[in-house]
Amino acid sequence: MNQDVKQEKPFDPNDPCLFCYPKPHEILAETEHALLISDSFPVSPGHCLVTPRRHIKTYFECTEEENREFRELILLAKQQIEEKHSPDGYNIGCNNGLAAGQSVMHLHIHIIPRYKGDVENPKGGVRWVIPRNSQYQLPK
Fold first, then answer.
1. Predicted confidence (pLDDT) per residue in 89-131, tens digit
2. What is the DSSP string of 28-85?
3. At the fourth CATH level, which superfamily is domain 24-117?
4. Confidence grade of residue 34 (pLDDT, cut at 50, 70, 90)
5. Would you please indicate which residues are annotated as catalytic (active-site) residues?
6. Domain residues of the chain, as ranges?
């Protein structure tokens, strides 16, 4: 076996943490405690993320000051997205813990622009995280 061939380490978004070291071209805006960054794997045009500068795992660990800045950056993201993409709606949310689908263990809040026709039936929105419970009917 040729020992000159380096084995490439598989991609791990947590080593080093993807959000502790964002690429400069990904940063759309910043505050003292948070960043607005473009999503490297967008699910729709304009998809971006708000992340704290501090390495924390879940939303439940953020401070009031961080939370205020998250809101400020989410509103700025909406303004920027509307100017470039004119979406018809938004999903905003974060995954907290492995059971919720979190894969990068640094809090990140998704701002996902939605467009008419991007899915056949958008009813239920974020409820689709558990597909069998996504649809609901009001009692007759």
1. 999 999 999 999 999 999 999 999 999 999 999 998 898 888 8
2. EEE-SSEEEEE-SS-SSTT-EEEEESS--SSGGG--HHHHHHHHHHHHHHHHHHHHHH
3. HIT-like (3.30.428.10)
4. very high
5. 108
6. 24-117
